[in-house]
Design brief:
201 residues, mainly alpha
């Protein structure tokens, strides 16, 4: 009966279904232990149909990473009408809500996928750079900031990823608590960094 239900999916829905299953598998297994047969079995489709959508396993993983990086950027799009701190809190709130709603995709991005190849790492690095620019812009009132801001924000993004992965594993804090923790860390880092900037006479 489930196979009949699957057969009614159009091409767009089928692709979305396969990407979701791929996220689950790549999030819980090393790349070399994920087989196209596993994906096809979970989807209730033939290997041939899966290859119709994705040329091979590496192309499949690339498609997953592209989808997840775009989705995170869209979900965390800042409201530029808000003051900088409110913009930061709003974006972080959406970020952790996305992480909570898409744990497999997030784990795939930041645990398994980066080690696979340079193209995947570039997709992820490009995503982080765009996030970095958004945050620096908010902190500098729409400007490009300075090297200290950029370095602080880049390091802080690594902290957020580590916190988010641990939070997914243990869930010892609420979404709001972990959001506030990360926001407070950034504001303190920026304040400390700004205090160290020499002033001109």
């Amino acid at each position: 009966m489930s196979n009949k239900a699957y057969s009614r999916l159009d091409a767009t829905d089928r692709r979305a279904q396969l990407l979701e299953i791929g996220c689950e598998l790549f999030a819980t297994r090393p790349y070399d232990e994920v087989w196209i047969d596993h994906v096809a079995d979970k989807a209730g489709v033939s290997r041939g149909l899966l290859y119709h959508h994705f040329e091979n396993k590496r192309v499949f993983l690339h498609a997953i990473v592209e989808h997840e990086t775009r989705a995170i950027l869209e979900a965390t799009k800042p409201d530029v009408a808000l003051p900088s701190e409110d913009r930061l809190l709003g974006a972080l709130d959406q970020y952790f809500r996305y992480v909570e709603a898409h744990p497999h995709g997030y784990r795939t991005l930041f645990r398994g996928a980066p080690a696979t190849d340079s193209e995947v790492r570039k997709l992820i690095d490009d995503n982080l750079t765009r996030q970095e620019k958004r945050i620096v812009s908010a902190l500098s009132a729409g400007g490009t900031g300075n090297d200290r801001h950029r370095l602080i924000v880049r390091g802080w993004i690594g902290l957020v990823i580590t916190v988010a992965l641990d939070w997914l594993d243990h869930k010892q804090m609420s979404t709001e608590e972990v959001r506030d923790l990360c926001a407070d860390a950034l504001l303190r880092l920026v304040a400390t960094g700004s205090a160290g900037v020499p002033t001109s006479n």
